[in-house]
Design a protein that fits this description.
Blueprint lengths: L1 E6 L3 H4 L5 H17 L3 E6 L27 E5 L10 H7 L4 E7 L1 H14 L3 E10 L14 H11 L4 E3 L1 H9 L1
Parallel strand pairs: 1-2, 1-4, 2-3, 4-5, 5-6
Helix pairs in contact: 4-5
GO molecular function: hydrolase activity
Keywords: Coiled coil, Hydrolase
Organism: Salinicoccus hispanicus
């Protein structure tokens, strides 16, 4: 069975930039999963430090209201990997999931770490490149012209372990 992970779709991230295209893509995928009766799992990054934007009791750490109503379950994490010291593996096992689709934020951190951790645990992994987003840009990494999503997608694709699709490829796949 397949399941969708929606990673860190939280106010602290989504409110920093115009992520409307990413949100639209994620919502489209969520609707496909809902139609198929497949689990939609939201991952929420939390922190115990009151100064953090992900402080577990702050509004900024809450799931973004635009899509949070779609969550079948919410798993909280404290590291980039949605698997590390969480109940995600147990939930997936209980649901007989063997194929994970990755969407959410930030592409180069939590989405990438979770995709690799999922593969390491034996899951088939599909990373939907343009259904991820990041608050970072080429200036942060001091690499002019860097397209972070494309770079991460390319690295994962070249690994020959993670399937990487863009929305068009994903939509073609569900039609066939």
């Amino acid at each position: 069975m397949k399941a969708l992970l929606v990673i860190d779709l939280q106010n602290a991230i989504v409110d920093l930039k115009d992520f409307q295209q990413e949100l639209d893509n994620i919502e489209s995928i969520i609707k496909d999963f809902k139609k198929d009766g497949a689990p939609v799992i939201f991952i929420r990054n939390i922190d115990d430090q009151e100064t953090s934007p992900f402080y577990k009791k702050s509004a900024s750490s809450e799931l973004h209201p635009s899509l949070k109503g779609y969550a079948d379950v919410v798993i909280e994490k404290k590291t980039p990997s949605a698997f590390y010291k969480t109940d995600l593996s147990n939930y997936l096992e209980d649901q007989n999931v063997d194929h994970l689709y990755i969407t959410g934020f930030n592409t180069e951190f939590c989405c990438q770490f979770t995709a690799i951790a999922a593969f390491d645990r034996g899951y088939k992994v599909t990373f939907i490149e343009d259904a991820t987003g990041t608050v970072n840009d080429d200036d942060v990494y001091e690499m002019k012209g860097l397209d972070i999503r494309d770079f991460v997608g390319t690295v994962l694709h070249w690994s020959n372990t993670v399937e990487v699709l863009d929305m068009e490829e994903y939509q073609e796949g569900i039609k066939s």
